[in-house]
Write a structure and sequence with these properties.
With 150 residues, the chain is mostly helical. It is 92% helix and 0% strand.
């Protein structure tokens, strides 16, 4: 009987030890699972932070690209306006140049006719010693001026 009692006590102690070991193992497994979860969350959080940083850098880069594109568009518009203005000025300049050339041509034509008329007056004065009324045509020429060309 004693052996039986000792055996029963030993079996009970062994069962008790097994239960304690199982509880400890379960606690350790739960602790390990919690650590894995905690580590996993920390890694996810780090990855999220890195992703957010990368996203911010990308957004900053996109903003700089957009700003550069706006600056290029503005410069392109300025150049187009300047080209249009230059073209307009070129057309105006050509028009004014042609007009000035026409005025100069007209001036020299008129001056040539006046020179011809004056030469005729001088010739008549040299021949007759006086002006004929028909040649004057309203131009008053002083005899002293004619004498300069005789």
């Amino acid at each position: 009987d004693r052996n039986e009692c000792a055996r029963l006590e030993l079996m009970t102690a062994m069962q008790q030890d097994q239960l304690e070991l199982r509880d400890r193992l379960q606690e350790r497994q739960e602790t390990a699972d919690a650590l894995v979860m905690q580590t996993s969350r920390a890694m996810q959080q780090k990855m999220h932070v890195k992703f957010e940083e990368a996203l911010m850098k990308h957004d900053h880069h996109l903003a700089r690209v957009a700003m550069a594109n706006r600056a290029l568009e503005f410069r392109k518009q300025q150049l187009q306006e300047r080209d249009a203005r230059d073209t307009s000025h070129k057309v105006k300049y050509k028009h004014l140049l042609h007009k000035a050339q026409d005025v100069a041509q007209t001036h020299w034509t008129v001056m040539a006719k006046k020179q011809e008329h004056f030469s005729e007056l001088v010739q008549v004065y040299k021949e007759n010693g006086e002006f004929k009324k028909g040649l004057l045509k309203g131009n008053a020429v002083a005899p002293e001026m004619v004498s300069l060309f005789i």
